[in-house]
Structures are given as structure tokens and as C-alpha cells.
Amino acid sequence: MGVALVTGAARGIGAAVVRRLASAGWRVVAVDIAAEPGGDPAALPDVTYPLGTREQLSTLAGEFPDAVVDVVTDVRDADALRSAVATAEAEFGGLDAAVACAAVMAGGTPLWETTDAEWSALFDTGVTGVANLARAAVPALLRSQQGRFVALASSAAHHGLWHLAGYNAAKHAVVGLIKGLAEDLRGTGVCATAVSPGSTRTDLLDATARLYDLGNMDEFASHQLHERLLDPDEVAAVVAFLCSAESSAVTGTVVHADGGFRP
User: Model's pTM, two decimal places?
Assistant: First the structure.
């Protein structure tokens, strides 16, 4: 199939993308910051919920011992991502797809009460992290026969959400980044796309529910025409298609894998 690099891979949609690709015959470099379990993650002290762990990342790789290599990397570190791309080329002979899933949730207050630290957390991981991956991966993707760059945006990129203006802005920036990247890739054959999931059963959605003081994340289901939360694998199926050769007609745009999200 090909070789992919996936960030935010320890759990949630990122882990589902790794499983979906590896099960289809891809070889994957699975990247995550892989925080230590227990308490707030030291690497992102302004994020108030635990991130994916080293154990989760290594367990995922262990499911596909010949196809998945796990790499602990912070997407805020551009040099570290270039090293992860080099790992893909050294271990598997190249890179055909890069998938930016890493993001964090912060907020729960009006924009004027949002702290500098919360704003930075959203943009440093969720936007600069995507740009860092593109800058690291695109040179390798240009050497592929079917280079694909896919970034996870969100329904929040397209709808204003109460007390989440910073998250709205960060995900809207991801869409803009993808549109600009696709223009830069004009004529190369490399495609750049964004996927905007709706409310998906992940730890990030659980963190969002806590910001809203909801009993559990299932209360978000009423905002989708499906009237249920999406499963991460449903979103991963869309991402996997966009990584494939069959997606060659799709670039510079957003695929709304959102279950008919309505705020």
C-alpha cells in the first residue's frame, strides 16, 4: 500500500487511523508526545487533562509488530518531526502519506477570559504542529508516486461554538493552512486535504464535556443528524481513503465527516 506517518497516534482518531492503515497493508510511523500517566502532562502543563501515554503508543505498535514503528515526538518540535520522517524513510523506504491528528482542547470560558497559555496550547500543537509536519513531510511526499497530506480539522472550523472561540480559531486556521498548502503543491500530484469530524467518541471530546460541566460526552449526540456520536474508526475510514491513490481528485478542500453536525 504505502508508508504513512501519523501524529497524535496514541489514542482517539490518530490511533484509529494507524490501525486502519496498518490493517490495509500500510507501514506506519506512529508519533505521539506520549506523556507519562497520572496527573497533568508535564510536557503541556496548560492542558488540564491527561494526554495519550507511552504505554498506549507502544501497545498500538505492538498490534502490528512488522508494520508500525512508534516514535515519541512533540509536534511543536520541527526538528523532531524531520527526524520522524527520516525514520519512515530509513525503516520503510520512503513516505507516501502524512496525517496530522495531534491537537489539544482548552477553553470553556468567553474569549476575553481565555488565557495566553490556553491560546498558545491550542495553536502551538493544533496549528503550528500541523505546519511543522507539512514542512518536514512534504519534501519526502514529493518523492512519492502518490503523496498525500491530511490534517484533522473539526466541525469547530465551520461553526462557532460557545466558549470555544480559541478552538474555533485554531481549527479554522488548519483549514486555511491546507488550502494554502494545496496551492503550493499545484502541479506536483501531491494532494493536501482536511477532514472535519463531528463529535467523536474520544478523550478530547470527553475533555470538552468537562469544560461544559456535562455529565458525559453522549450529550453531544443531539447536535448530529445521526443522533449518535461518531466512532473514531468512521473518521479514520475517510482519512484512509484520502491517503490512498483513489483520492487523486481531492485536494485543497475539506471533507466533512461530521455525522451531519449542527451546533
Answer: 0.93
